[in-house]
Amino acid sequence: MISGTSPGTRFGSRWVMLGLLFCAYALSGADRQLVAVLAEPIRKDLGLSDSQLGMLSGLAFALFYTVFAIPIAWLADRTNRIATIAFSCLVWSLSTAGCGIAGNYLQLALWRVGVATGEAGASPSAHSLISENFPPERRGMALALYSIGLPVGIAAGTAYGGWIGSLYGWRSAFLWISVPGIVLSLLLLLLVRTAHNAPELKGSAAHKAPPPLPLRETLRGFCKNPVLWQTTFAGSMAALSSYALMVWIPAFLMREKGMSLADIARSYSVLSGSAMVVGMIAGGLLVDRWQRRDPRASAMIPALAYLAAAPLVLMAIWANDWRVCLALLAVPLALMMTWLPPALATVQNAADPRQRSVVSAIFMLVTGIIGNGAGPLVVGLLSDAFAPIAPGRSLHWALTAMCPVLLVVSMSYFGLQRTLMRGYGGETRTAGA
Hints:
Helix content: over 70%
Order of helices and strands: HHHHHHHHHHHHHHHHHHHHH
Structural class: mainly alpha
Distance between the termini: 20 Å
Shape: globular
């Protein structure tokens, strides 16, 4: 109990904070999903290849998103984290509007860099704030509730992009979606003022947070901690497979299964968003409950989930009808999202409290470059490579070639569970004792 703060006030303030952080993450997910759902009209209008689309959705975005996360997180640990998130939200919202006025590939790529740079400042600070305001036994679920902002945003972006894009064109979709982000940045700034009068938001102000460690010491500690780097490797493989599917399935359904942009907005957005939310909530609930009895829980949950998802994804890709494809995708989309809450909780529990923002940024750097960056780009390159030998079916074969990665994810997590069994002296073991 924090001195001078009633239980009700503490509960209310930290959940208001979590709600606003959730909204920010949802808007960032919607902004980044627009390129995926509007890929076909953008490709035709600007004359792009699948490799260029993969670069826009993947590597070009992920490089700046992840590389900028570390210096911004380092700064956030020394200033005000909520203010950092508010400014980041404003930057990515204005850059999203800029995408709507891009006249060629280079201009669109530069505006996407602006979106990536803005979004880089949000999650590391948010992870640290949540960890400092929720105890270890509730941290997994709190991080899961924040994390479902991404699939909610992706689903909303898919529905919104398909609807507005089909009625008014892809440029209008980018312009209008920037407005809520600008409004939210102002609401977050109001929370900064509230934080000065709410001691329970103890991670909101620099003088309330533990004194941060030097960046070099943080990097050295990360590399020496087997739980941190093994969780990062396994999470990278999970991100690679999941982001590759999330980015390319809308284009695959339209190009090779006969779905229209309006069908994507009505059907795929609801199914994918619901499935991913269920997966993240399940991952958070399971890790909070199971980990009290077994330290291997955060590894075993995604290991089993990806093992079950692999054959279902393959069956969905080979289905002849888009309705059958969607039905088969529902379960694996949920299973493939169970990895994120356990991974975030494991990283935050294993990190020194003075390093949490930067450690989270390092985790995002690696998983982002490999997952967000390489996943969509590899599928785009494979699709272009298959085009001469499989005209009209190149994306089908590219996605099929990605299915073995799901088994690599499962094996990586089975390896991590042995490390977790040995323990690492973090908060999870203390909380579960």
